Amino acid sequence: MGKLDGRIDAVFADMDTPQHPGAALLVTDHNEIVYRKCYGLADLETRRPVTADTSFYLGSIAKPFTAMAIMLLAEEGRLSYDDRLSSILPQFPAWGAEISVRHLLHHTSGLTEYVQLFSSSAGIPEWTREIHGVTNEAVLDRAADLAGLAFPVGTQYAYSNIGYLLLAMIVAVVSGQSFADFLAARIFDPLGMKHTVAYDASRPFRHNLAHGYWREKDQFERWDYPMLTVGDGGLFSTIDDLFLWDQALSTERLVSKALLAQAFTSGTTNDGTPVGYGFGWYTNVFPFCSAAEHEQLLAIGGAGLRHVAHGGSCVAYYNYTIRFLDTRRTIVVLTNGGPLTPASEQKHGGLISPRIRGHQVAEILFSG
Q1: Closest CA to 138 of 96, 200, 84
Q2: What is the pLDDT of residue 117?
Q3: CB 291, CB 275: distance < 8 Å
Q4: Which of these, 272, 274, 268, lies nearest to 287 by C-alpha position?
Q5: Distance (Å, rounded) from C-alpha 53 to C-alpha 208?
Q6: Measuring CA to CA, how many Å separate 323 from each of 28, 33, 122, 316, 339?
Q7: Do 245 and 194 touch, CB atoms closer than 8 A?
Q8: CA triplet 268, 271, 274: central angle to 5 degrees?
Q9: How far apart are CA 29 and CA 354, in angstroms?
Q10: What pLDDT was estimated at residue 304?
Q11: Cα-flanking dihedrals φ and ψ of residue 47, to 5°?
């Protein structure tokens, strides 16, 4: 790509330095890899570099996989999007009786977050030490301690990790398999995703792991992912495996094109207001973007450019993927260092959001 290589490398220049956590970048165009490169280190102690088969914690980029598991079961007639949570998990508190699978998928359930059930600390990464080893079952047991719903079911949108954790438990009940085993049997293995795992209580091996690092006073300290929850997060994968996943989303290898179209379409509240979130995907990232990012996305394909995207983060891992549906282009950025630096302070140094990096790369590659 000649000159483009240098411009893309410049986006990651701050990470491609000695003793610095790294990044993996993947860009596809019509199901072909047009750019794949890695920067920085996966392990600062051994100076092991990030490579295309380095596995990262994906954070909430796991949610599209959770939604796909639900879609597979729905397409087989084993559940309905309008099934009530209480009919599948009857032990859930009675105040959640009106919540359906669809509400969980679209984040319109009214459920709040669950971290506060296990930790009273607001500090990062302090709270993660207090939830070491927490599982889906432990979260469900503690759900009774929640005060109830934040708003009536279906009336608003509010991003909810516990909602996707519950979806993983629904998959396990309906399928008769653990969520991790279902993903392996129905998604990972059929697609050849050999280095992707759901990290649950079985603590599976994580291939060529990129350790997480948290910067304290200009020094990176190793941070090991502590949780065993799945559905809301919990996946580890590589950019090579994510390429296989991206290819499948352009075909009917997993589910029908009609169902994929539904996944990539915004859900609504009870009054028909779009929420900007489909089945595991944001259907509009513009509300989260700076003015500069707006210009980058407009340069790529105009104001009407259809896309789905998702970020994923937890303390030391920050990731982003965006799929441009009409032009069939995808960008994935995985990183293993935190915390991120607010845009207003980045002129003084610091880690930049992978979303910003991904949009910069898209502009370089596709605006010409």
Answers
A1: 200
A2: 79
A3: no
A4: 274
A5: 7
A6: 9, 13, 33, 24, 25
A7: no
A8: 30
A9: 19
A10: 60
A11: 60, 35
CA 34/CA 1 separation, integer angstroms: 9
Question: Cα 131 from chain centroid?
Answer: 20
Report the C-alpha gap between 266 and 268 in whole angstroms: 7
Question: Any idea of the CA torsion for 276, 324, 241, 224, to the nearest 10 degrees?
Answer: -50
End-to-end CA gap in the chain:
13
Distance of CA 240 to the CA centre of its chain: 16
Phi, psi of 189 (to 5 degrees): -65, -45
Radius of gyration of the chain (CA): 20
| Cα 43 from chain centre | 22
Show Cβ contacts of residue 280 under 8 Å, excluding neighbours closer than 6 positions. 63, 64, 65, 66, 67, 68, 105, 164, 263, 310
> What CA–CA distance (Å, rounded) separates 39 from 357?
13
Verify cis geometry, omega within 30 degrees of 0, for the bond prior to 274: no
What 17-20 contacts at long range (C-beta under 8 Å, 24+ apart), as own/partner pairs, is 19/44, 19/47, 19/220, 20/44, 20/220, 20/337
Other C-beta atoms closer than 10 Å to the C-beta of 256 total 11
φ/ψ of 167, rounded to 5, equals: -60, -40
Contact 61, 310 (CB under 8 A): yes
Structure-block tokens of residue 21 = 């956590």
Residue 39 structure tokens: 């920067």
**Residue-level length of the chain:** 368
> Could you tell me whether strands 337-338 and 212-216 are parallel, antiparallel, or unpaired per DSSP bridges?
parallel
Q: Which amino acid is at 210?
A: A
Strands 219-223 and 212-216: antiparallel
Task: Give the residue ranges of the chain where pLDDT is below 70.
Answer: 1-2, 120-128, 299-304, 341-350, 368
Contact 320, 198 (CB under 8 A): no
